[in-house]
Amino acid sequence: MSDKINFAAAFNKSKEELLSMDETEFRARFRERCHHTMEIQVYAAAYRGRTLSADQPKTARLFMEVWRERGLPETLPEYVFASKLLSFAEELIQGGNIDLTPYAPVPISEEARQGFERVLYERRSVREWSKERVPDELIKKVLKAGLWAAHACNLQSIRYLVIREESCPGLFRGSDIPGGPVHIVLLQDMRVYRANPVMPESNQLLDAGAAGQNLVLAAHAYGLGGCWLTFTSEQMKQRIREHAALPEEIRMTTYVDVGFPDQTPYPPQRISVEEAVFRWE
């Protein structure tokens, strides 16, 4: 038997299969199928002034029907997003136009642009911390920024483990910086990747990388310091995993320490754009 992926079997699930599926996988499949079978086509048709095929939303409609039968809240983001896209699709199927201008980002002012550049270029990896306690609400803002990072196929694998050093002193021993004060472990729920079995592992790791970059940038923007770290050993990872009782399907990918900084490192210099560009045509 060929080891090639059977795309029809991998992506096209029956109503019965969807109804019996683990909820995490079902929601991930809803996001992935909505993206690949309706979102891309809707925006392409709208941009080119084309009429959308009447069959285009059928997959999304199936998932929405199963969603309701499973009794999932219609206020969850997958259903809200699919409902809006379906309204766009129905308008295009009728030969109409859709107005996307209400969703256009507000133009970035010069002042805001300078603020962005400050966050980008003044962020530092901090390794010494003050004793000031980081409020929970500030941590939540940083976590939210991580969730808004780009994510392949909109599968949304990112999960978090947030542990204050004061609550579990020494749990993160082995790090090359003084412990704490707040450890944010970037987890990934690997069940979501069942929704796209042809996705390479590099994309999965990039999902976590994009979230991690948002975390450290957001930490700096909110007045915190941050340092992106690496688990130094499997023993360290296992110790944290056992402490948090993480289930098997949750992968520990990396972690970021945040807190109020107590140092101002000299900025490490970067190579020039000219040196970095291998070829420009």
Characteristic terms for this protein:
single chain, 281 residues, alpha+beta, four-stranded antiparallel beta sheet
Structural class call reads alpha+beta
Morphology call:
globular
Distance between the termini: 44 Å
Whole-number mean pLDDT: 94
Word description of this protein:
The protein has 281 residues and is α+β, with helices and mostly antiparallel strands. The protein is built from 10 helices and 4 strands. It has a 4-stranded antiparallel β-sheet with strand order 1-2-4-3, with helices on both faces. The mean pLDDT is 94.
Would you kindly provide a brief summary of this structure?
By secondary structure, the protein is of the alpha+beta class. Helices cover 45% and strands 11% of the residues.
Helix-strand layout with pairing:
Layout: H1 7-11, H2 15-20, H3 23-48, H4 58-69, H5 77-93, H6 110-122, H7 136-147, E1 158-164, E2 182-189, H8 201-221, E3 225-229, H9 234-244, E4 250-259, H10 273-276
